[in-house]
Amino acid sequence: MLALFDLDGTLADRAAGLRAWAVEFCADHGLDLAEADWLVEADGDGRVAKEEFFGRVRERYGLAESFEELFRQYSEWQPTLIPVYDGVLGGLERLRSAGWRLGVVTNGYQVVQTNTLVSTGIAERVDGWAISGAEDVWKPDVRLFEIAAARAGGKPGADGWMVGDSTADIVGGHAAGLRTIWLHHDRPWPAAEPAPTRTVSNPTEAIALILGLGIA
Is the pTM higher than 0.90? Predict the structure, then answer.
């Protein structure tokens, strides 16, 4: 039995971690704390390339640090500020105790996502993961799901699940032959895309659903 999970916005609250990082960044650089709003918006929910993001940051605040230095500081610091959602760590432990093989499928930079997995405690509660920046494959490409499944000791199939909060999670999981659970975060599902198998409001509901349904 295999269950794959997205990381940011599914198991871990990246938005909260980014906000905390932005506030500390402002304090450390003597900026008005209101600039935290600009930093969060410029980040684009992680979808803006860090080269572009920190290029804009350097220009806006006249920073002398290079991109490499700013990114190094960010990748070491920001992941430590990301909290897991309530009930996630215990839920993952219950899944493993019930015989599920667990994997994480995430888009992002290898160093940032690895540090997030480790600092949140998720790494020690799953069996493997695949990070797009390490594999040069991005969701919804089925290959990233296959890599994660193999590292978790399983393979995609109709008895497994993919849990995520983005269309790429659900579309890619569906294409990989998995049942899917979408965390809606108060958003409607885009009608043009294949619908998820189930829809929930938080990851603990998704974990409870997997435990309750098993492979039925």
Answer: yes
Question: How many Cβ atoms from other residues are within 10 Å of residue 58's Cβ?
Answer: 15
What strands, in cross-sheet order, belong to the sheet with 2-5?
Answer: 128-131, 101-106, 2-5, 161-164, 179-183, 198-200
Strands 101-106 and 198-200 turn out to be: unpaired
Stated length of the chain: 216
Nearest CA to 182 out of 171, 192, 191 is that of: 171
User: 21-41: per-residue pLDDT in tens?
Assistant: 999 999 999 999 999 999 999
Q: 2-13+83-213 falls under which CATH superfamily?
A: HAD superfamily/HAD-like (3.40.50.1000)
Token readout for 178 is: 């998995």
pLDDT at 157: 81
The identity of residue 168, as a single letter, is: A
